[in-house]
Amino acid sequence: MEITKEIQKLMLERMWTIRTFEEKVMEVHEAGEFVGAAHPYIGEEAVAVGVCLALKDTDYIAGNHRSHGHPLAKGGSIKKAMAEIYGRVDGYCNGKGGSMHLADFSVGILGESGIVASSVPVATGAGLASKIGKKDFVSVVFFGDGASNQGACHESMNLASIWKLPVIFVCENNQFAITTSYQNSVAVDNVSDRAQAYNMPGILVDGQNVEAMYEATTEAVKRARNGEGPTLIEGLTYRFEEHSLGLGRVRRGEYRTEEEINKWRDRDPILIHSKKLIDRGILSEEECKEIESNSYSETDEAVEFARNSSFPEPSDLYEDMWANPIPKP
Ligand SMILES: Cc1ncc(C[n+]2csc(CCOP(=O)(O)OP(=O)(O)O)c2C)c(N)n1
Ligand SMILES: [Mg+2]
């Protein structure tokens, strides 16, 4: 498949956006600038970016607890995402959602949830809405290897298949659910093997290869828009950092080795893609460096934006909480 130079370049830019964003989130969390959990996506960037660049703004995505990268890959605002994580009024949910709730319907971001696998039926519902409303949007859900063991995930895949819904199930197999290896908890060799049981294609993709993720998604989107139903894509990837910020008790070495982490760090999706762009003569080494440093500057600006935004007023506690026409208490 021919991928345009613009898309190839955008892939690198978006992966750097996520990487620098997450590095900054880790730094400011450590400094105590915001409270609560946050789950770094570092190492997995190629999955979100490859998938989202194969979508239109009008297509929907839904995520999970590890979902800073998905909205940024879809073209969401870095400033609004950072302000939300800081719990400020200029954030995506006016500061009332935090790290696990970055939603923006205007660019197709349905939102996320900290309840493992709970976004899978939500995205399936969006696919049903597309079909019933005779629209042409597709709906994508990102979920983990751990989530793939949940009943909600299986029920959703079954319904999406029998109703031929335009849904793309993207399992980000980063190989662990907190400290449990998927090899000890998933009954089949690959999560994508589960697609057979739901009569849909199951595609295993190298999740460190952004172009492979893009190509697999493009095929799945075509199938979904043609009314042929859902696809399960498994991006085999790796979480470079720990499960959650502030989870000091789960230390390296207790469930995986430094050697394993380093082996995967050598397969850094950003390095892999930069090298391809340089080898193909699409970007020079200097231009790649420039993309990297621009990302760092934009992230710094987002942090400044977040710091300068206020916390929501206590009197606004019940605003944004209820859908009309449910009356406020
Ligand atoms: C229903 C439910 N059960 C348990 C948890 C606690 N929990 C949070 S993240 C997580 C692991 C999820 O693993 P996976 O789906 O592979 O996603 P990853 O964190 O690896 O991206 C668990 C068990 C939860 N949030 N929700
Ligand atoms: Mg996992």
Could you explain how this protein is built, in words?
This protein has 329 residues and is α/β, with parallel strands linked by helices. It has a single domain (5-305), classed as Rossmann fold (3-Layer(aba) Sandwich). The protein has 11 helices and 8 strands. The strands form 2 sheets. The chain has a 6-stranded parallel sheet with strand order 2-1-3-4-8-7, sandwiched between helices. A two-stranded antiparallel sheet has the order 5-6. Helix 1 (5-30) runs antiparallel to helix 10, helix 2 (45-52) runs parallel beside helix 8 (210-225) and helix 4 packs across helix 11 (285-308). The longest helix has 26 residues, at 5-30. The chain starts with a helix and ends in a 21-residue tail after the last helix. The mean pLDDT is 95. Residues 144-146, 174, 176-177 line the site of magnesium ion (MG).
